[in-house]
Amino acid sequence: MKHFDLIKKNGKLIIENLRCGCAHDHTIPDMDIYIRTGLLDTCAECIKDSGLGQNALLVADNTTYRLAGAKLQQNLINAGLNCRVFVLPGDNVEPTPEMADIIVSHVKDDVDFLISVGSGVVTDLTRYSAHMADKPFAVFGTAASMDGYTSITSSMMIGGMKISKYGKAARLIMFDPAVLATAPMLMQASGVGDLMAKYGVLVDWKLGSVAAGEVFCPLCGELLMMALDKCASHIDDILSRTEEGMEALIEALILAGLTVLIVKNTRPVASVEHNMAHYWDMMHVACGGSPVPSHGICVGIGFIYCLYFHEMLKNADLRRIDKERVRISRMTRQQKKDYICACYPPGAGEDIMEANEEWYIDWPENERRIDALAAYHEQYIKDAAILPEAEQVIKCFERFGMPTKASQAGISHERLRNALLCTKDFRRRYSVAQALSELGLLEECAFKLLERENSL
Ligand SMILES: [Zn+2]
Ligand SMILES: [Zn+2]
Q1: What's the CA dihedral at 350, 354, 359, 361 to 10 degrees?
Q2: With 90 as the cut, is the pLDDT of residue 426 above it?
Q3: How many whole angstroms separate alpha carbon 399 and alpha carbon 393?
Q4: CA-CA distance, 40 to 44, in Å (whole number)?
Q5: pTM of the predicted protein model
Q6: Residue 176: phi, psi to the nearest 5?
Q7: What is the distance in A from the centroid of ligand 1 to the CA of 187?
Q8: How far does residue 295's CA lie from ligand 1's centre (Å)?
């Protein structure tokens, strides 16, 4: 059964007639989405159709203003709209609340809506500012680099930490494949990394439904597989940055992003590989060391380690798990608390425990999960058949010039070890790392990967 209808009409992407019997409450996002070549010169029509109003505040950075913002502004003016412009100062703008305050100070009474022209940081800042100013906003995306254009949260830099802040979803999202093709190759690589990791997320989500009572949504599963197939069948086009390739990649990222709005949480798009990426970024910001690659590239690297974890879980004999050995080797609540606090920057470990009441499970629950995982193992192997081989993913990423392991990305051995062992506790989302941990196998598996890292 198809769980939804997806219609493309003159570049407008419409999802409707959601049909899913799972326990999630499904919502059709109130968002107009366009992916069309030439949109840079015709976007005023979309803005009028979306009813955003007459007076825009356009937010861009130096690069995106030059690349697309100036033309977009002209198109709005030609169409009879008013368009003020705020170009973010400097070359490396951080998404801080202070910067958002400056944007908000440009939102005068006569501004009806904001429009961001850019990718990650510009979109995050505009979303946050629109929320603070209580105005609707539109997005003109300039790179197919991540799945967060549809997001309701912004990743903000607050007090030396990246914190996800509630904003609001864009009312209108627009992409022009010809503009996307001008973004540097590593931005598309980042989009591909963020997307490919969804194979692992889907398998982890099913594991979570068996072991930890998470509710797997077949509708989201189908949308994600559609997105993944679209990306996989256009890798050559994406590499050559044809308009068809750019359209396929951004459409896949948007479809993935929509699942978050449909079930109103990020479980469909993120698992432990996202926690790893977040951890590396957080450690760099809080404790220094080499800068880490962009979000999607770190997610892609995390995903490769997860693929090895899945391989190890597939090959494990779960009927022969020595439960007594697992029970004895478990950390106590206090030991685990100390361990997490030691791995994360000061204060972050405590926040994780506060935000995530399930970070520690007792032995009876652990034992129950071992039995549940053992009973599921045969079906797990079938469900995990959607996963690509790690070597295949490495080859694909290499074609994009992406690093494929932590040491190539400037991530230290210690930060890799911590990512493999303790980022599973970062959010409540279940993952292959959590399953291995409950089976008493995680340390051994992580150790094998760390050894392999050295020998490569
Ligand atoms: Zn992501
Ligand atoms: Zn569902």
Answers
A1: 120
A2: no
A3: 10
A4: 9
A5: 0.96
A6: -115, 110
A7: 13
A8: 7
* Distance from Cα 199 to the centre of ligand 1, integer Å: 13
pLDDT tier, 454 (very low <50, low <70, confident <90, very high otherwise): confident
Domain ranges within the chain, ordered by starting residue? 5-183, 186-214+267-455
**CATH number listed for the domain at residues 5-183:** 3.40.50.1970
User: What is residue 331's DSSP assignment?
Assistant: P
Residues with CB under 5 A from ligand 2 (ion): 20, 22, 24, 217, 219
Tokens of 234: 């256009």
Measured in angstroms, how far is the CA atom of residue 298 from the centroid of ligand 1? 9
For 56-109, how does the pLDDT look when each residue is reduced to its tens digit (9 = 90+)?
999 999 999 999 999 999 999 999 999 999 999 988 899 999 999 999 999 988
The stretches of 289-389 forming alpha helices (DSSP H) are 295-315, 323-329, 333-343, 348-355, 363-383
> Is the pLDDT assigned to residue 167 strictly greater than 90?
no
CA of 226 to the centre of ligand 2 (A): 15
Average pLDDT value for the chain = 95
CA of 120 relative to ligand 2 center, distance in Å: 28
Within 57-119, residue ranges assigned H as helices are 62-64, 70-78, 97-105
Q: What is residue 1's predicted lDDT score, i.e. its pLDDT? A: 67
Q: Which ligand is nearest to the CA of 153?
A: 1
As assigned by CATH, the class of the 186-214+267-455 domain is mainly alpha
Which positions ≥6 away from 370 have C-beta within 8 Å? Answer: 318, 321, 323, 326, 438, 439
- Least confident span in 30-39, 75-84, 91-100, 314-323: 91-100
Q: Rounded CA gap, 242 and 231, in Å?
A: 13
